[in-house]
Fold this sequence. Notes:
3 domains; Serine Threonine Protein Phosphatase 5, Tetratricopeptide repeat; alpha+beta; two-stranded antiparallel sheet
Amino acid sequence: MKKHRAAAFLAALALSFTGRSFAWFQERGSSGHALENMESSGQSADALGAGGTGFEYYNPAGFSSRFREEVSLTFSPLFEGANRYSAVYVLPLETTLSSFKGCRTLWTSVSGVSVGDVPGTNELGEDTGSFGASEIMMKTGYSRDIGGGCVAAGALKYYTKSVADYSASAVTCDLGAMFYLDDVEAGLAVQSAAPSYVGADEIRPSLRGGIKHYFAHRRASASFDLLYQAAFSASAALKWFVGARYEYPRGITWRAGLNKKSVSAGFGLEFRRASFDYGMFYHPLGIAHIFTVTTRFSVEPTAAELRAEEELRNLEYERAAISRSAALERKFLSDERDRLARERKISSIYLSAARDFGEKKYARAEAKLGQILKIDPRNEDARRMLAEIKAITSEAIVKRKMFEMETDYKKGDYASVVENALWIIGAQPDNEKARIYSYLARARLFAAEKKYTDAKGELFEVIKIQPTNSEALGFLRRIQTVMDMEGR
C-alpha cells in the first residue's frame, strides 16, 4: 500500500513541475527571502516554540525520526495582511517501532508566505490599485539509514516568487545527515546546496548544524543550533538558536526558546492518532501566533507497546551479553584445561630429564629439555638445566676426561676408566673411543674376578665396534686359553 502511495505522490509531483514554466533569470526584482527566514525559524508550531530548533524542517534527514505516515498542516497569521502556511506529508517506507535503524522515509512539503491587497503607486505617487505577493517553496526528500548510527538524506527544492504580474522561480536541493547515539541527536545540513537565482535574487548555500540532548527518560530535551546563512558571501550571517522541551504530564509538551532575533514559547497536545501544537514568538511589530495540526494514518504504538518493545530489546541485549560471557567462560575453561595438560606434560618430561642428568646421561637429558622448550620456550627450569649441561659437556671438559681415562687405563685404574668413559658417553653418545675403553676396562675387571664369560662379552662389544682392535683380540685369546686350561 505504501509503495502505491509513494508512486502516486511522485507522479503528482512530476506533473506539478512540468506544468510550470521556469524563469531562471529575470531582469526584474523580487519580493525578498521570507521563506529562507521561515526555514530558519521553523515551519511548524513545535519547532518555532522551541526557538526554531526542529531538525526535520531544515535537515531532510530529520524526518527519519517519524515512524508513522502522517500529514501536518501549519498556519500563522502575521502582520499587515501577511500569512504563512505549510503542509507536510511523511511516508515511512521501512521503519521499526521507535527506532531509526533500517529506516527509509519519503516526504514532501509545500510552504509559503502570502500578502494580499498591497496598495500600489507609480513613480509620481499615483494610486495604481492593490496587488498581491507570495513566495512558495515545494520540497520532496528521501532519507535512509546508512549504518553506524547515521541517516543520510537529500531533498529537491522548487522555489518561486511572485509580485503582482511578475514571477520567477528556481530549483535547488538540500543535503543532510543525522547522527543518533543513545540520548543524543546531532544533525548537519547544507541548505540550497546548488546555487541558483530567483529573478535577480541569488540563492546561496547555507550551512546549519545542531545537537539535541534528552534527559529524564527522554521526557525533556535541550537543543542548540548554528546557521551560517548565505555562506562565504558578502551577505553571510551567523545565527544561533536555543530551545528546550519538557513533557509533563504525559501527553503535554511545553516549549521555550530564543534566537538572535526573538524569543518564543508554546505547547503541544499529543493523542494517539493526532497532535495539536501552538507556538508564539515576539516580533518588533507584535506577538505572532502559529498553529499546527498533525494527523497520523497508521496507529501510533501505545506506551505499553513501546515499553514491551524496549523490554524485548533489553532482553536481547542481555541474552547477547550472557552469550558473550558464556563464550568467554568456555574459552577460559578450555585454555585452563590446555594449560594444566601442558604443565603436566612438562613436569613429566622434566622429571625424566632430571633423572638422566643425575645419571650423567646428558645427551638424553638435553633432548628432553629441548622438548620442554618447544612447548614452553620461556620455561626457566629447563633453560637452567640445559645451561648446566652445556657447561658440563663443553669440549674442554670432554678432552680432560678423555686424557684422564687413557692415563688411568695405562695405570690399571680400571674403575676410574669406567667412570670417566660413562661420563663422556653421557655427553657424547657417539664417542667410540670412550665406549671401547669402557668395554676394555670392564673386561679387565671381570677377568680379575675370574668372570671370564662376562669379560669375553665385553671384548666382543669392542670387536663389534672395531673388529681389528689388537688389544681386544689378544686379550680374548688369553682368556680363552685360561678357560681351556681350567676346563671351562
